[in-house]
Design a protein that fits this description.
By secondary structure, this protein is an all-beta fold. The strands form ten sheets. Strands 32, 33, 35, 36, 37 and 39 form a six-stranded antiparallel beta sheet that branches. The protein has a six-stranded antiparallel beta sheet with strand order 41-40-50-49-48-45, with no helix packed on it. It has a five-stranded mixed barrel with strand order 15-16-22-19-20.
Length: 586
């Protein structure tokens, strides 16, 4: 009844360049020495980032190797030809106000789809240093602190400590999207392992000024993790504890926890993510899913679990119908496929497979269900093919936030081979032109089997408000919709109303005495973070306002030039470029 890592190592920088915590391991950082990462290669990725309420997370920074991208207003991103390993890709999603998201996976040759659900960094309780305190969640998960804390420089911290806790249950519907990395782990002997989780806990500690904190050197905290009721009968007297290494993307074994009643209790010396997991040797499995015509079926959710276990986890086939990833070695596993209405349409047992082997099972052909090929061409407003686009297809009535099929366009062309729930499947489709920040809007249609040709789809729905800015050659930061633009007396303020407040990408323009179209070299300050002012005074910045609309009309502006910055005590000159189109509120 434990939940295991699926067939797939499920996917997948703050503007301030801070992580949500700093981590010091008692043991040296030790990658899984016997895991075959393969050779260096390039792979392509696309995906969607949502919050725990199902809403898109815009402006999140996605990092894969040295490649970065920003999610748009729909939470969508595309990264092509990222440098990864043949058998290992590490994906990071960061945004202020959220717990960092991490995914690792075995990438395929197609465009790999990444689903990430980010957790808001919500304060659970505030405690004081110097005193023993226990912070609890309603289900019995809790942490007991001895009152000793340190800051990122190792200095003793005194004062209030904000504790943000999140318990991830093995039965959570979105376990795959919420958990960091995958279930790939490195045990205390340096051997790669696949884990089965009995629950995970994330703890973030911050001081009164928002600074990151950790448990002081030589001290520990007592962590109690509630066991899922369905796992009580299979839970062992002791279980290994694992911490997630944000540098390697791999879980590291660090100590153990003891079963006390319906909980596991153990002592830890630092915090970010912790996991109570059983461990297994690793094998690799490849699965191809096709329709009766031999065409690959993309974005099919393939579920897997060990025999005798309760919870499934899943991954998606790529555009070539291929899913590839890691499974427990020496175990028989069930490979199952459901349609998007939750009906089981394929079930097969495979294995056991020896540790360290790569295994391809016979093609899975889904012949007893309706099959649809849905195709078309994304066009720009001028009629040209969209060069950098993505298309999202949803089943009407789907209840899972991530129950969406996606495809990256090839010079505007897109094609899905999908299975339906019935012979008159209702779909919703949306095409997005990433380069020009435009979209088609929702297109509702009834699928026609075997081929539904939607023809040309024009992406002319311009995003209503935006501010894009770039510092040096860093990734462009895209602030989309949700602005306040006000002229109060002679004071102009334009601010991106991102929620939670202060999250990235952040933009704020404050200008005194600027009330009309014109060119200005003084009297304004740009903020690219809540406490990151870039004043025109003393710098070489120019604000050009080309349109200064009345209330409910638009203000169009650019800011260009250079400014002075300080990096680790060293003065540097940076280049700033800003383009804005926002609606004036008053």
């Amino acid at each position: 009844m434990t939940k295991i890592y699926s067939l797939f190592l499920i996917l997948a920088l703050l503007i301030s360049c801070k992580s949500d915590s700093f981590i010091e391991l008692d043991n040296p950082e030790n990658p899984a020495t016997d895991f075959n990462f393969g050779n260096n290669t390039q792979r392509s990725f696309h995906g969607i980032v949502l919050s725990t309420d199902g809403n898109p997370v815009s402006g999140a920074t996605i990092t894969i190797g040295s490649a970065t991208a920003q999610t748009n207003s729909k939470g969508i991103f595309v990264i092509k030809n990222a440098d990864v390993k043949e058998n290992f890709a590490y994906v990071k999603a960061t945004k202020a106000g959220f717990v960092n998201g991490f995914r690792t996976m075995v990438p395929t040759n197609g465009s790999n789809k990444i689903n990430i659900m980010m957790i808001p960094a919500t304060n659970t309780s505030t405690i004081s240093s110097g005193a023993t305190a226990t912070v609890s969640l309603p289900n019995g998960t809790k942490v007991k602190f001895d009152g000793s804390f340190k800051d990122a420089n190792g200095n003793v911290y005194s004062g209030n400590v904000n504790v943000a806790m999140f318990h991830l249950k093995p039965s959570d519907q979105y376990l795959n999207e919420l958990m960091p990395g995958s279930f790939l782990a490195n045990n205390s002997n340096g051997n790669s392992r696949i884990m089965e989780t009995y629950g995970m806990l994330h703890v973030q500690l911050t001081g009164a000024s928002g600074q990151n904190l950790q448990i002081a050197n030589g001290h520990t905290a007592e962590m109690t993790v509630a066991i899922d009721p369905t796992q009580i009968s299979t839970s062992t007297a002791t279980i290994p504890l694992w911490s997630f290494n944000e540098t390697t993307g791999i879980w590291q074994e660090e100590g153990s926890a003891t079963k006390v009643g319906n909980t596991y209790v153990g002592n830890v010396s630092h915090f970010s993510w912790w996991n109570c997991d059983a461990q297994f040797p690793v094998a690799t499995l490849k699965v191809n899913v096709k329709n009766p015509a031999g065409q690959p079926l993309s974005n099919v959710q393939v579920y897997i679990r060990r025999l005798g276990q309760t919870y499934d986890v899943y991954g998606n086939t790529d555009a070539n119908g291929l899913a590839s990833g890691l499974i427990p070695a020496n175990e028989t596993v069930m490979v199952r496929i459901y349609n998007n209405c939750g009906t089981l349409i394929h079930n097969v047992n495979v294995g056991p497979f020896s540790a360290g082997t790569i295994n391809t099972i016979p093609d899975i052909v889904l012949a007893s269900v309706p099959n649809y090929e849905i195709k078309g061409v994304l066009k720009t407003c001028s009629g040209a093919n969209v060069t950098d686009g993505v298309v999202y297809l949803k089943y009407v009535g789907a209840t899972n936030y991530f129950q969406t099929i996606s495809a990256v366009t090839t010079n505007g062309n897109f094609s899905f081979n999908v299975v339906g729930c019935n012979n008159n499947q209702q779909f919703n489709l949306e095409g997005i032109d990433i380069t020009n920040a435009q979209e088609s809007g929702n297109i509702a249609f009834t699928g026609i089997s075997p081929v539904t040709n939607l023809g040309n789809i024009t992406t002319c729905g311009t995003i209503s408000e935006f501010v894009n800015y770039q510092i040096d050659n860093q990734a462009v930061q895209a602030c989309v919709n949700g602005f306040s633009a006000n002229l109060d007396a002679a004071y102009l303020g334009i601010m991106h109303n991102q929620l939670p407040v202060g999250t990235s990408p952040y933009f704020n323009l404050q200008a005194n005495g600027i009330t009309s179209v014109g060119t200005y070299t003084s009297g304004f300050t740009v903020f690219n973070g809540p406490n990151a002012p870039i004043p025109a005074a003393g710098n070489n910045l120019t604000l050009q306002i080309s349109q200064f609309g009345t209330v409910n009309n638009y203000i169009d502006f650019t800011i260009n030039g250079t400014y002075s910055d300080n990096v680790n005590g060293v003065p540097v000159t940076r280049t700033l470029s800003v383009t804005g189109h926002v609606k004036r509120d008053f």
